[in-house]
């Protein structure tokens, strides 16, 4: 067992180890990740991916990727392609070919007929409203459908007629015959098949009846020889139905379903339906908007697969619910990037600085480390010229107490460069500060000045030897810890108006004219930023998305 597997030890792993030790389980461990292709994967799915593939890896087994594609009205190829890309990007490889529940439609149909012939299923003509009325409630048992005692031959013929397109949507359904008085409402004669006239992305128009998830899932697991079907806790009440289906058909095996707590993050929604609403109402720029908790959105924002896997390991796998602080996710990416991200300087709100004692026709090249703690990453060259840019927020005419940046007649060190002192402030006709006249100390490159002390260190770039860039300052999409809580009103009421601030005309080091696109940069003193390749190509200049700030700004004293 690898060191990584030991680190990720959880109660499911313990259950499997115990089953192997007792002889209850023999042979290969086989798991599966079974997403519905009706949206993009999000951070909650990442937890399930890491768990299912991680368990298989721990026991030298297999993990299948299977699309639960039983609802063609909400599914399409775009989602399938995106899901495959996300799983691969996270660093996992599924066993064999990609699988689909639709691969088993013929077998599912045969098993449905088997249930009918065993008098374990019947065709029902109750309307949806009537069925809800007959179902009862948590306090009252349900009532048998008047169609429950149809002769087997009649239900079998009606089911075949449904398959052959002789009935319209909603006219008939196939139901399991279990127990309308069961305290578990899922066992009160659940629907197994319904009529849907919709073209399927895999099977075309072959079928006009489609199986329900609770019927499809256990049979698909059995068809693939899954040994451990790992589900989130909302499926715990469905486990008796999962077992009932497998106990009442002549399936090849009976997988074991085990439930674990789903991931809930504060300031975040992980409902695909609600995420789709954000996309459909153009609140965000598609499923891969960097503010979305989708894996593709996080990838575009600059999150690394290593940081997401680390986060999933940090939160663990357990039976208890609860909400995880999104700050843990942000901590994971900071920790990862702090050791790996190359450094660079970016002036987001440029303010011109003219060095009055530096020749206009002179320039020099300063050498700075790519990473101050990792010499193996090499060095970078930064031009020093008479005109520079500093950030407007690094200068105050009347600085507050303990100000550690630039002010009139005060000195600062420019990161990796010289010390300079502000001598004059230039304003335009409206009174806006447009330029600073400063004097640099030529004896301070790499050494402290004599007789005075700089008032801090700020970043900068050459005005003539830097590159224009656009900066997208992304932040949390919601400003409420529980944006989708029914008690807190509509989630749209909790949108953070500062979730995206676009800065045009920023300036970055000359070396970032062709930025790397495999890892974010740390823009010194600002945060971690990732080159948005698609927007860079469209804009004709570098576009950077903020991955995360250097420190948590939402904690104590934060937003």
From TrEMBL:
Subunit-level organization: Monomer.
Residues forming the motif 'HIGH' region are: 35-45
Return one Gene Ontology term, BP aspect.
Answer: glutaminyl-tRNA aminoacylation
* Localization in the cell: Cytoplasm
Q: Which family is this sequence assigned to?
A: Belongs to the class-I aminoacyl-tRNA synthetase family.
Q: Where does ATP bind?
A: 36-38, 42-48, 232, 262-263
- Listed HAMAP family: Gln_tRNA_synth
Q: What is this protein called?
A: Glutamine--tRNA ligase
Record flagged with keyword Cytoplasm: yes
Q: Where does L-glutamine bind?
A: 68, 213
Q: In this protein, which residues make up the domain named Glutamyl/glutaminyl-tRNA synthetase class Ib anti-codon binding?
A: 341-441
Q: Show where the record puts the motif 'KMSKS' region.
A: 269-273
């Amino acid at each position: 067992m690898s060191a990584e597997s030991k680190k990720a030890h959880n109660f499911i792993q313990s259950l499997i180890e115990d089953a192997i030790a007792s002889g209850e389980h023999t042979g290969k461990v086989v798991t599966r990740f079974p997403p519905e292709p009706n949206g993009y994967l999000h951070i909650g799915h990442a937890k399930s991916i890491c768990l299912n593939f991680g368990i298989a890896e721990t026991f030298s087994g297999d993990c299948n990727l299977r699309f639960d594609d039983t609802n063609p009205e909400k599914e399409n190829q775009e989602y399938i392609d995106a899901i495959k890309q996300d799983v691969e990007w996270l660093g996992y490889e599924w066993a064999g070919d990609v699988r689909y529940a639709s691969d088993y439609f013929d077998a599912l149909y045969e098993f449905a007929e088997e249930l009918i012939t065993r008098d374990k299923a019947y065709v029902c003509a109750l309307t949806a409203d009537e069925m809800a009325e007959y179902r009862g409630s948590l306090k009252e048992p349900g009532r048998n459908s008047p169609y429950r005692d149809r002769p087997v031959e009649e239900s079998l013929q009606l089911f075949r007629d449904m398959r052959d397109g002789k009935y319209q949507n909603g006219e008939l359904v196939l139901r399991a015959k279990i127990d309308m008085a069961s305290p578990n409402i899922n066992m009160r004669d659940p629907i197994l098949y319904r009529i849907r006239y919709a073209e399927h992305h895999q099977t075309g128009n072959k079928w006009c009846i489609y199986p329900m998830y609770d019927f499809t899932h256990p049979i698909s697991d059995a068809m693939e020889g899954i040994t451990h079907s790992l589900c989130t806790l909302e499926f715990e009440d469905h486990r008796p139905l999962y077992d009932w289906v497998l106990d009442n058909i002549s399936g090849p095996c009976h997988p074991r379903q085990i439930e674990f707590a789903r991931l809930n993050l504060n300031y975040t929604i992980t409902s695909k339906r609600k995420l789709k609403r954000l996309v459909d109402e153009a609140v965000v720029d598609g499923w891969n908007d960097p503010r979305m908790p989708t894996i593709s959105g996080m990838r575009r924002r600059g999150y690394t697969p290593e940081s997401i896997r680390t986060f999933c390991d940090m939160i663990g796998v357990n039976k208890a619910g609860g909400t995880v602080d999104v700050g843990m996710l942000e901590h994971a990416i900071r920790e990862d990037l702090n050791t790996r991200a190359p450094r660079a300087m970016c002036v987001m709100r440029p303010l011109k600085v003219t060095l009055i004692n530096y020749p206009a026709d002179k320039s020099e090249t300063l050498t700075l480390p790519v990473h101050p703690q990792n010499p193996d990453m090499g060095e970078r060259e930064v031009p020093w010229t008479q005109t520079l840019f500093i950030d407007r927020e690094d200068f105050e005419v009347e600085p507050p107490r303990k100000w550690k940046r630039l002010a009139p007649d005060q000195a600062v060190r420019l990161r990796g460069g010289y010390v300079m002192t502000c001598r004059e402030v230039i304003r335009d006709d409206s009174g806006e500060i447009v330029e600073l006249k400063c004097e640099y100390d030529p004896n301070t490159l790499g050494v402290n000045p004599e007789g005075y002390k700089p008032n801090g260190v700020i970043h900068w770039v050459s005005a003539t030897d830097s590159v224009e860039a656009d900066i997208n300052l992304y932040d949390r999409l919601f400003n409420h810890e529980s944006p989708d809580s029914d008690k807190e009103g509509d989630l749209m009421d909790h949108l953070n108006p500062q979730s995206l601030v676009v800065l045009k005309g920023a300036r970055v080091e000359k070396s970032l004219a062709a930025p790397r696109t495999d890892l974010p940069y740390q823009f010194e003193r600002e945060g971690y930023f990732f080159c948005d390749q698609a927007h860079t190509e469209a804009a004709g200049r570098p576009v950077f998305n903020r991955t995360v700030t250097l420190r948590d700004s939402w904690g104590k004293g934060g937003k």
